[in-house]
Design goal:
alpha/beta, 304 residues, seven-stranded mixed β-sheet, Rossmann fold, globular, 40% helix, binds S-adenosylmethionine, 7 strands
Length: 304
């Protein structure tokens, strides 16, 4: 387990305000996209009648901007609380986790493909990226090509919700025709990547169970996810938990692509393996426990 340095009070307060900055940034894209629809494209009723489409477009443009800033490793992309823990930002948790990827891989919600440079291992045969936000596909494809993964990386334009994923996997020849539910499979993938995405799926417990079913025996789920603040434990913070609720009330989920700050992702993933009497092994680290964006990072291995 990592030893996490306690943040100073100043850094801790900064960390509590960090999601607020992200939220304002996301809101500005939402406002801009709505104004453009009305005044540039003349779609006067679009904010009322096509709010889902505009929200999707705004989140896509926002996420491209966030990932570009992170790529440039500017001061804006660095997190003081991460720096005190010996990292630049939470993205530094991802490489050691993704180093475990191999075989046939499902990349859940790859966004713009910022993880692409970490997926060049020859141990990885083929990758399917299930990304429902169409505004991110162009960037995702160009990153795959730029990293030499053009042939290996296949974009599935869908959510991991079974009603969308099952037909896509059937189209790719990965699930037999006639399959209607993901828990009817005996396993498809060797590795499933979940990086900052389980916060956004509609039903966490169900998705966790379905992803578990999609794993072959001995397969791995690799996670780097922000989670609910563990405020009931000594490592958590009541104030940070209250701030999470505050940001949710301000519309965090609406402006940030259905992201939720209150997910107990570790519990959902652990329970997903109950049908088989648990996982073969779980290696998980917990980070930034006193902040509004605490993380879990690690590897869940299915029994062989
Ligand atoms: C916060 S972004 C993270 C992107 C990428 N994994 C990363 O870490 O840079 C969340 C991503 O999950 C995608 N997403 C949201 N709901 C999803 C779902 N139900 N199934 C698959 N992806 C989803 C979003 O479109 C978005 O690209």
């Amino acid at each position: 387990m990592a030893s996490v340095n306690e943040p100073t009070t100043k850094v801790w307060i900064q960390s509590l305000l960090e999601p607020g900055q992200l939220l304002l940034w996301a809101m500005s894209y939402y406002v801009r996209v709505n104004l453009e629809a009305v005044f540039k494209r003349g779609q006067i009723l679009a904010p009322l009648l096509q709010s889902a489409r505009l929200r999707d477009e705004a989140f896509g443009r926002f996420w491209v901007a966030v990932t570009t800033t992170n790529d440039e490793n500017t001061a804006q992309s660095q997190s003081p609380v991460a720096i005190q823990a010996g990292l630049q930002n939470s993205s530094d948790l991802i490489p050691p986790v993704l180093a475990h990827a191999s075989g046939l891989v499902l990349d859940v919600g790859p966004g713009t493909g910022t993880q692409m440079p970490l997926l060049r291992s020859p141990a990885i045969k083929t990758i399917y990226g299930a990304e429902p936000c169409h505004g991110l596909h162009e960037e995702l494809r160009s990153r795959a090509d730029a990293e030499g993964l053009g042939e290996k990386y296949h974009i599935l334009p869908c959510s991991v919700v079974a009603s969308e994923l099952v037909p896509m996997l059937q189209e790719q020849g990965l699930l037999p025709a006639g399959t209607t539910a993901l828990d009817q499979t005996t396993g498809v993938f060797d590795t499933i990547l979940c990086v900052r995405v389980l916060c956004s799926v509609p039903d966490l417990d169900q998705t966790a169970r379905e992803l578990y079913s999609l794993l072959r025996p001995g397969g791995k789920i690799l996670v780097t996810e922000h989670v609910v603040n563990p405020w009931r434990t000594a490592k958590g913070s009541v104030v940070a938990r209250a701030m999470q609720t505050f940001y949710e009330l301000l519309g965090w989920s609406w402006y940030l692509g259905d992201c939720r700050l209150n997910r107990n992702t570790e519990r959902a993933l652990r329970r997903a393996a109950d049908v088989d009497g648990g996982w073969e092994s779980v290696e998980l680290e917990r980070w930034f426990g006193r902040t509004c964006l605490p993380y879990i990072a690690g590897v869940f291995v299915k029994k062989a």
